[in-house]
Amino acid sequence: MDKFFTYNDIRLHYEDCGEGHPILLLHGWGCNTTTFNAIRPFLEARFRVLTVDFAGFGKSDEPHQVWGVEEYTRSVEALAKHEGVENPILIGHSFGGRVSIVYASRQKVQKIMLVDAAGVKPKRSLTYYRKVYTFKLLKKLLPIVVGKTRAEKIIEQRRAKAGSSDYSQASPMMRAILSKVVNEDLCHLMPKIAAPTLLFWGENDTATPLSDAKKMEKLIPDAGLVTVAGAGHYAFLENTPLFLRVAESFLSKEMKK
């Protein structure tokens, strides 16, 4: 069932289906509720499943200000309170994993599945920082050399060529938000997660590499890792049968009988 909830004057869309112990499905950056279509029928037959469109994605409004992971987490916490959801199971993919980590570090949750989740700040090379600071210098000098209008076109072309597809396809507000959230390191919160946590990870994930999962496994007190051979950043879609078998085993005690 499609539902809408207003948080800080922002209209958020979510779907609420099934009965039983509540699950919050939290998607990755650039995705929406439809990303989970392959696994939802299985879950909705056994749980109450709330699938959320984060602000700025799907049918939800964009934030009016530059949000970080904290603001996104607060919006999900507010939604859970609005729906009377207590002690939920969290399933977070990629960016949804970030929100799951913050949520679980301070709220009571039953269990967590982190799927190719973000949250470990990537290691940057000297080449990366050289490109960043060269680009910043270019933004300052180009308007002086070629004029503001021409400079904006050149900068946009360079940004589209050098930036990620997530960045180039985003609106100005969502670009600013992406720039903020990708640099947030959540490792300090992981030891505060008390709930049993299962990490489901693609062996060949380049967006959030397997080394991130291994670090999370060490930092989260009660965590285990399932590595999916040959899979990338969408391991739960690349090997859905395996994901569902793992979910069925991990969540068996909470399933509706």
Question: Strands, helices and their partners?
Answer:
Elements: E1 2-7, E2 10-18, E3 22-26, H1 40-44, E4 48-52, H2 69-82, E5 89-93, H3 95-106, E6 111-115, H4 126-146, H5 148-162, H6 165-168, H7 172-181, E7 197-202, H8 210-219, E8 223-228, H9 235-238, H10 240-250
Parallel strand pairs: 3-4, 3-5, 5-6, 6-7, 7-8
Antiparallel strand pairs: 1-2, 2-4
Q: Determine Rg (CA atoms, Å).
A: 19 Å
Give the amount of beta strand, in percent.
Answer: 15-25%
Q: What characterizes the major β-sheet?
A: 8 strands, mixed
Helix content: 40-55%
Taken from the alpha-carbon principal axes, the silhouette is globular
Let me know the number of strands.
8
Q: For this structure, what is the CATH class of the largest domain?
A: Alpha Beta
The second-level CATH architecture of the largest domain is 3-Layer(aba) Sandwich
Biggest sheet, strands in spatial order?
1-2-4-3-5-6-7-8
CATH superfamily of the largest domain: Alpha/Beta hydrolase fold, catalytic domain
Low-pLDDT windows of residues: none
Measured distance between first and last alpha carbons = 22 Å
CATH topology of the largest domain: Rossmann fold
- Residue-averaged pLDDT, rounded? 89
Structural class of the helices, strands and pairings? alpha/beta
Number of helices: 10
**Number of self-contained structural domains:** 2
Question: Secondary-structure element sequence?
Answer: EEEHEHEHEHHHHEHEHH
Question: Would you kindly provide a written description of the structure presented here, covering whatever features stand out?
Answer:
The protein has 10 helices and 8 strands. It is an alpha/beta fold. It has 2 domains: 2-122 and 182-254, Alpha/Beta hydrolase fold, catalytic domain (Rossmann fold); 126-172, no CATH class. α1 (40-44) links the parallel β3 (22-26) and β4 (48-52). The longest helix has 21 residues, at 126-146. The mean pLDDT is 89.
